[in-house]
Every structure is written in C-alpha cells, then in structure tokens.
C-alpha cells in the first residue's frame, strides 16, 4: 500500500487479497504464485518500459488516495454504520 501512495507500481503474485488491490497493467503487474519466470519478466518490463512504469505509478497513487485515504475510509464506515443503525431502529418499532 505504501508503494501505491508514493506512486510506485506494484510487482506481486496473485495470492491472498493482492489481486483485489492491484489492477493488472493499471497499477501493477501480477504473476501466479510459483511462477518465477513471469515474476522476473514483470520486473524486467518495469525496468525497461519507463512510460508504463510512470503511468502505472500515477494511476496507483490516484487510486490509493481515492480508495485508501483515511478520510474516505471513515466516511464509508460512517455510511455503513448509519445505514445499519437505521435498519435496526426500523426493525424494533
């Protein structure tokens, strides 16, 4: 997450929640677990394609600030809690 915020594209494997955070070729490059050849190719791609690295980094930062900014997260939680509170009150009347 820190890399996204500072505008760096991500190179990672498709495991756990990583694919939910990283959009392939938009904010980073992903490879299947245990595929060292593709992982190395992804590293080489970003080392040699400056424009791709730059564009992915810009998009990564924009998305990180949009979706993972604490103010945005607090607003989303407040909305969920408010909605749940309203449903709970309606159900008890």
Structure commentary:
With 93 residues, this protein is mainly alpha-helical. It has five helices and two strands; from the N terminus they run αβαβααα. The protein has a single domain (2-92), classed as 3-Layer(aba) Sandwich (Rossmann fold), CATH 3.40.50.2000. It has helices at residues 2-5, 18-21, 36-48, 50-67, 70-92, and strands at 10-13, 28-31. The protein has a two-stranded parallel sheet with strand order 1-2. The longest helix has 23 residues, at 70-92. The radius of gyration is 18 Å and the shape is elongated. The termini are far apart. The model has no long low-confidence stretch (mean pLDDT 89).
* Low-confidence regions: none
Estimated structural class? mainly alpha
- Characterize the overall form: elongated
Helix and strand run = HEHEHHH
What is the architecture at the second tier of CATH? Answer: 3-Layer(aba) Sandwich
Strand order of the largest sheet: 1-2
Tell me the name of the CATH homologous superfamily. Glycogen Phosphorylase B
* Count of separate structural domains: 1
Number of helices: 5
CATH topology: Rossmann fold
Largest sheet: number of strands, sense, barrel closure:
2 strands, parallel
Radius of gyration: 18 Å
Distance linking N and C termini: 44 Å
Oligomer: single chain
Q: Given this structure, which CATH class is correct? A: Alpha Beta
As a percent range, the share of helical residues equals 55-70%
- Average the pLDDT over all residues and give the rounded result: 89
Per DSSP E runs of 2 or more residues, the count of β-strands stands at 2
Strand content: 5-15%
């Amino acid at each position: 997450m820190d890399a996204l915020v500072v505008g760096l594209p991500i190179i990672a494997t498709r495991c756990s929640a990583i694919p939910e955070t990283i959009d392939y070729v938009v904010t980073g490059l992903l490879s299947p677990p245990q595929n060292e050849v593709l992982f190395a190719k992804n590293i080489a791609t970003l080392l040699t394609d400056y424009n791709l690295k730059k564009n992915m980094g810009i998009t990564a930062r924009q998305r990180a600030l949009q979706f993972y900014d604490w103010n945005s997260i607090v607003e989303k939680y407040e909305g969920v809690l408010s909605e749940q509170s309203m449903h709970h009150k309606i159900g008890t009347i």
